[in-house]
Amino acid sequence: MPAPFHRPVRLSPETFDNLLGSHDPAEQTRMAHATASALLARVRADDSGVSAERLVAYATEHGIDEVAELWAKSPAVSLPGALWRLYLLQVSIHADPSLAALLHERGRVELPSVDALVAGAPVPAGPEELVALIDTILRGAFSGDFAIALERAAAFCRVQASGSTHIADDYDPTEPDRASDLTTRASRLSAFAHDLTASAAAWRDGSLT
Questions:
Q1: Which residues contact 170 (CB under 8 A, 6 or more apart)?
Q2: Which domain holds residue 182?
Q3: Nearest-CA neighbor of 166 among 122, 123, 121, 103?
Q4: Within 10 Å of residue 91's Cβ, how many Cβ atoms?
Q5: Does a structural domain hold residue 35?
Q6: Is residue 89 a contact partner of residue 158, using CB atoms and an 8 Å limit?
Q7: 3-class DSSP state for residue 79?
Q8: Buried b (16+ CB within 10 A) or exposed e, 40-77
Q9: Which among 42, 84, 173, 193 could disulfide-bond with 71, CB atoms 3.0 to 4.6 Å apart, if both were Cys?
């Protein structure tokens, strides 16, 4: 099985073989933390920016399964857990940018906070702008201030969650199944926002591993 992120990171194949073949939860956790730390260190050491661009495009080009094998079971507030959530967020926006734009605009209008400004989307933000925004946030995690990238992602999640909640209310009288799906989405986005905010704080105090 090819090693995930082999080209930009150049970790040994044995590292990933051990991770993917291990049934020991403690070993899986250790390897998840090790690969996340190695990945971030290698990409930040690449001043050309090529590695960061490869990782921004990775899930779109190759899918999310290999990233999931690496980090999906990691604690929410951890380096691999934060990276996993950033990738999931990116994949969800790329999968349905029109819905993302609809939720963002409704959330921007309804949410009484500065989250829309922190996230950094233009006004108005269409599907292409939302795809560009989430890619920019992920790029910032790999090559910029990691905590700021997490905070922007958390703010983005809160705006999307607000939009999901309000549109769910609109659908509830006539399309309860659709409303239920949007309510579930809002709950997940709110949880992501909480986890990413906590991870940003942990990164700033040096405890995110």
A1: 179
A2: 49-205
A3: 103
A4: 15
A5: no
A6: no
A7: helix
A8: bebbeebeeeebbbbbbebbeeeebebbebbbbebeeb
A9: 84
Total domains, the chain: 1
Structure tokens at 99: 């819905």
Please tell me the distance from the alpha carbon of residue 131 to that of residue 119, in angstroms, as a whole number.
Answer: 13
- pTM for the whole thing? 0.85
| Residue 139, token pair as written in the block | 């790029």
Query: pLDDT (tens digit, 9 = 90+) per residue, 11-67?
Result: 344 433 443 444 567 777 888 899 999 999 999 999 898 999 999 999 888 888 888
49: left (phi over 0), alpha (psi -120 to 50) or beta: left
Assess if residue 28 is contained within a domain. Answer: no
Does residue 41 sit within a domain?
no
Q: Which of 151, 148, 169 minimizes the C-alpha distance to 159?
A: 151
Residues found in the chain = 209
Give the CA distances from residue 139 to residues 55, 144, 166, in Å, rounded to whole numbers and listed in that order.
Answer: 8, 7, 30
Answer for the pair 156, 117: CB distance below 8 angstroms, yes or no: no
Question: Range with the lowest mean pLDDT among 16-25, 147-156, 181-190?
Answer: 16-25
